[in-house]
Structure formats: structure tokens, C-alpha cells
Amino acid sequence: MIEGFVGEIITATSHEYVPAATSYGVLGSPVLIARPSSTEDVSAALAYARAQRLEVSVRSGGHTPFSTNEGGIVIDLSGVRGVEVLDGGLVRIGSGAVWGDVAQALQPHGLALSSGDTFSVGVGGLTLGGGIGWMVRQYGLTVDSMLEAEVVLASGAIVTASATSEPELFWALRGGGGNFGVVTRFTFQAHPLQGVVTGSIDFEPNALEQTLRNWRDVVRDAPQELNTTFLAMPSFGLDDPARWQVLFCYGSDDISAAMTALKPLLDLPGVTGQDVGSKAYVDVLVEPEVPDRALTIIDNNGFADNFSDELIESLVDAHTKFGSAILMIRHIQGAFNRVPADATAIAYRDAEILIISAVFLTPDIPDDASSKVNALWEPVAAQTAGMYGGFTNSTDPSIAELMYPPSTLARLRRAKSHYDPDNLFRRNHNLAPHVEGRP
Q: Residue 374: what pLDDT?
């Protein structure tokens, strides 16, 4: 069917079609799903898509509704998932691998990469979005450890992007998403890690404003090995009450040092319990609770340089009015800040935290419910900047405008116009090619 393609082809008559055409709970209806076995297969699949004028979706782990479509082709990279550990702590990874595969492969070598939070998150999608993981304070974003990428361009050409080869493409790939080509393999510099100390600290779910201030004051002085996230979960029924937790990962197997770092958190008012243990890094990558797909989720997020009392007050006011909502606040200060703002497409490098909110609405919501949620978020948005694309499932085309400051957005669009002028790769947080006269 596809000239020169030797991988697997799945069509609507195959018993594998429905799961292969489903991504993050969304069942698409692509004409076919192509599972390449090589970079050359990817090039052949793109040539077919261009010739047939098919929309293209690219799938790594499938944690996004973008990786399926209606009437197009899905390039499923799950057949390109090798993990090869090289000399000097270098690791070459197929973009169809998931981060659990990577952690398992690196563990015997005493190495790790700060990566996705869960086992099944795909290497390709997370990396191209930036990669805020469990060791972001210690080692920065996933892209901060990326050295090169093998890329199939819209033309079908195969190039290597690095600091010395296609440097503008290399810059754009580190945070610009899947707008510029299909990355088939990455090379990273892995970091020494024998194990971690990880777990959670439970808090009484009341006095949110004071609890957030207490957590903030402690983590500002915490060593960079201690990565923490504050999580407030709503009640989902009598058997699932509301809970507040600080989730943590201490990037070392030194339990004594970890407990010293954790003590100020454990001593905070309102602590009701703790779960602390030494683990292999791969065991941190657990699968999250999956919300009911029948619910409508309205999500917002933003970076803040200063988690001030004023911001906390605005955030608590909004969260209280949202009703059933998840609040996640990731402390990212550390190695993340040591990368210049213009070094990658993730520009908000002065940030102290990333705030993520997800409001759950029932199917019978009124038409204006979404706008009301976003209006409640506005006071928080006024004190934050940007948006991290990896933590929104919105397919609204305006999201890309929120993700980048104007100078970064303009540079990304220039790269887009060079590498994908016809916008073949548009099933993503899409960056329209640069048009003369538009910023």
C-alpha cells in the first residue's frame, strides 16, 4: 500500500484497528495506521500522506487527543522504541519508547533522565514539549539533557539536529512540539542516579491558603535534590474523599540526607501522615488515576516567577469557586533556571513554580460554563506567564499563542515556515508558518 514501507499497516478491517485508532480516550477514524520499523519507513509514510493529501497524526505514547484523526494517517512510532546505552552516559532512544522503558534500561547502569511522571508517557511527545519531570530542580527539563535528534522532515528528508547540525531546528524541537518533523531517535546525556527516596506527605484538607504558604516557605530553602509537588484532589464520592498531599522525589538513595531535607515539611502544621521509602527511579513512574471520560475537563496552567502571598490568595479564591477541581503546583526552581531563556523554546526560565488547574464539569453543563471557569482563572493568569503545553488537553488552536512569549513565538514560526511551510504537521499545538508582516 505504501511504496518502500516494510513496517505494519493497520486498516479499518483489522481487529487491531479500534485500539490503534484510539488516543487518550478519543476514537478517531483514520484511513490507516502505519507502524514504522525504521526512519526510512517514516519517510515513506510521509510521502504517501503527501501524495494522498492525508492529514498526519504522529503517536509516541498516545497521551494526547492529537495522535489520532478523522480520515487521515496515524504514524505510530511504537515500533521504534529501542534504548541503547552508550559510553560516557550517553543514551540513544527511539521516540516510540515510553519513559518506563528508559528508566528500566538505565537503572543497571546507575543512570537516569528526568522524564515523564508516569511509566507509559511517550519519549517523543514529552521531550518535544519540554519535559517537566520528577528531577526538574536537579537536572532541568528533559530537553536540557538532549544532545541531538534524528528527524524526518515534511519533505521526507532525514536530518540530524544538534548544536552544530541544523541548530535552528535543534532549538525549535526543544519545546516547540511536533511542528517541525517526525523525530525518530533522540540522544541524551543521562545522569548518575543509583536510586531515589520518594513518597507523599498528607495534609488535613483545610486552610489551603496557609498550607500553601507553609509549603512554599519550606521548599524555597530545600536542596535541589528535593523535588516536590503540592496536589489537592477533590472528592469523587464517599469512598474517595478530598485529599491534599505533597508528592516528592529526592534524587539520591541517601536516606539520611533525604530525611534531613524532608524534616521541615514533615514538621509543618496540618500533616496527618507520610509515606517515605527508597526506590529505584523506575518505581516512581506510576500510572495516574484516570478521570471519567464523560466529564468535561477545563484546564489552565501558567508559570510564576514569584509564588507570592497575593498569587496564593488569588489561586485559593479561584480554586474554592471552581468546585470539583484538581490543583497541582510544581516547584521547579533550580537547574531549570540555569538555562538561558533563549536557549530553548521553553522561555519562562525565571519561574519558581508551575500551577496546573483542572476543573471537572458534568455532561449537562450550561453553554457558558467553560467561559465562567476561565473568568475565575483570570486573576491567576494576570500573575502568571505562558502555558506549558504538556499539561493541557485542549485542542483549541489559540493555545500556542499562550505558550510562548512573542519573540519566541515569532522565531518558532520562522522555523516552521522553513521546515514545514505547508503545515503538514498540524495535529499538535500548532504554530502556523510565519507570514510576512505578522509578528
A: 92
Task: Write down the pLDDT at residue 98.
Answer: 96
CA 335, CA 410: separation in Å to the nearest integer? 26
pLDDT tens digit sequence for 395-413: 888 899 899 999 999 999 9
Three-state SS sequence of the chain:
CCCCCCCEEEECCCCCHHHHHEECCEECECCEEEECCCHHHHHHHHHHHHHHCCCEEEECCCCCHHHCCECCEEEEHHHCCCEEECHHHEEEEECCCEHHHHHHHHHHHCEECCCCCCCCCEHHHHHHHCCCCCCHHHHCCHHHHEEEEEEECCCCCEEEEECCCCHHHHHHHCCCHHHCCEEEEEEEECEECCCEEEEEEEECCCCHHHHHHHHHHHHCCCCCCEEEEEEEECCCCCCCCCEEEEEEEECCCCHHHHHHHHHHHHCCCCEEEEEEEEECHHHHCCCCCCCCCCCEEEEEEEEECCCCHHHHHHHHHHHHHHCCEEEEEEECCCHHHHCCCCCCCCCCCCCCEEEEEEEEECCCCCCCHHHHHHHHHHHHHCCCECCCHHHCCCCCCCHHHHHCCHHHHHHHHHHHHHHCCCCCCCCCCCCCCCCCCCC
pLDDT tens for 356-395 read 999 988 777 777 888 999 999 999 999 999 999 999 878 8
Domains of the chain: 8-78 (3.30.43.10), 81-192 (3.30.465.10), 196-391 (3.40.462.20)
49/55 Cα distance (integer angstroms) = 7
| d(C-alpha 284, C-alpha 297), whole Å | 26
Q: What is the mean pLDDT of residues 178-205?
A: 97
